[in-house]
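Reopening this one. Same input as before:
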Amino acid sequence: MIHIPQLAYSADYHHSFEPEDVASAMVQAIESHFNGPCDIVHVHNPILAKNKKFLKILKALQKRGLSLLLQIHDFAEDGRPRSYFTEDYP
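Same output, byte for byte:
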């Protein structure tokens, strides 16, 4: 398992950070762990806004050329109005 603290829920991580820096840390961790790039990054429920900068992190990963599989099965629309992102999904 690769642990990147900035990927925690916003309520659990109270330090400021830039999404680009987190994307860089993710790429470095992946390449270090797998001795090179990975084929795909599986992202579980990215649209629930548990981490307020998560979509920006995903967009930064896309800009770096990583392939993302966004597994969406819980929806903010299902009675979670505070879980909406105000920006477009990647």
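So the earlier flakiness isn't reproducible anymore. For the record, The beta strands are 41-44, 68-71.
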